[in-house]
Amino acid sequence: MILIHGGGAHSLAGYEHIAHTLQHEFHVNTFLLDLRGHGHSDGKKGDTPNITDVWQDISQIVDAVKQKQKGAVYLCGHSSGAGLLLNYLSWQEKKRG
Fold first, then answer.
1. Which residues span the membrane (predicted)?
2. pTM score > 0.90 for this model?
């Protein structure tokens, strides 16, 4: 599972507890990431100049997890991270045609 944090947050803003629980109680590998402009990501903090860049970042992470893991890859977003994922999935669908 790839967990996307909410706006103004970062991957270690309480999400590590969720990842730990999923891993140890449910045996679900969980990947936390910092979106552009958040946490330990590159770039100016709080700044995401182009949303398409963020969607491409998510796409690269999904591809990397698919190469590393067997089975399905799930996406989970908290707060505005959930809205971001809905838009990402719509963007992916449009890319496929």
1. none
2. no
Burial 68-84 (b: 16+ CB within 10 A, else e): eeeeebebebbeebeeb
Place of tokens 């103004």: 8
d(CA 66, CA 58): 12
Residue 47 has a pLDDT of 74
Say which residues have a Cβ less than 8 Å from residue 6's Cβ, sequence separation at least 6.
77, 78, 79, 80, 81
Do 1 and 28 meet the contact criterion of CB atoms below 8 Å apart?
Answer: yes
Q: Which residues pair with 31 in a beta bridge?
A: 2
Q: What is the pLDDT of residues 27-75, one digit of tens each?
A: 999 999 998 888 888 777 777 778 999 999 999 999 999 999 888 999 9
